[in-house]
Design brief:
The protein is of the alpha+beta class. Helix content is 16%, strand content 27%. It has 1 helix and 5 strands. The strands form 2 sheets. Strands 3-4-5 form a 3-stranded mixed β-sheet, covered by helices on one side. Strands 1-2 form a two-stranded antiparallel sheet. Strand 3 and strand 4 form a beta hairpin. It is globular, with a radius of gyration of 16 Å. The N terminus is likely disordered.
Length: 95
C-alpha cells in the first residue's frame, strides 16, 4: 500500500456533497497492513507496519478502534512482527 501524493488517492464523501476536501502529503511512503477476516466477514482491527525505527506520532489515531501499529525500517512484515500480530490477534479474540 502506498500513501501520499502518488498513491492513487481516494476521497470518500456522501453522495451530493458539494465540497470535498482532501489532504495530500508532498511525499510518499510505503506501509504494510495485515488484516484478518473470516468467511462471515467478521474482522479484527488491522495491524499497520510503518517504515522507521521509532514512533514519532500516532499514525493510526483515526483508524478503526483497537488497531495497532509497529515500525520496521522497510515496513516489511518480519518473523518478529508476525509474532506480535499473533499476540494482537489472540488478545482480540479472547475478549
Amino acid at each position: 500500500m502506498q500513501a501520499g501524493k502518488n498513491g492513487g488517492d481516494f476521497v470518500i464523501a456522501r453522495i451530493g456533497t458539494r465540497r470535498v476536501h482532501i489532504l495530500v502529503s508532498n511525499q510518499h511512503e510505503w506501509l504494510s497492513v495485515l488484516v484478518c477476516m473470516n468467511a462471515a466477514s467478521i474482522t479484527i482491527p488491522s495491524f499497520y507496519v510503518f517504515p522507521g525505527k521509532q514512533f514519532g506520532a500516532n499514525y493510526i489515531q483515526h483508524c478503526e478502534s483497537r488497531a495497532t501499529m509497529a515500525m520496521q525500517p522497510r515496513a516489511w512484515m518480519t518473523t518478529y512482527l508476525f509474532s506480535a500480530w499473533i499476540s494482537h490477534f489472540i488478545s482480540l479474540v479472547q475478549h
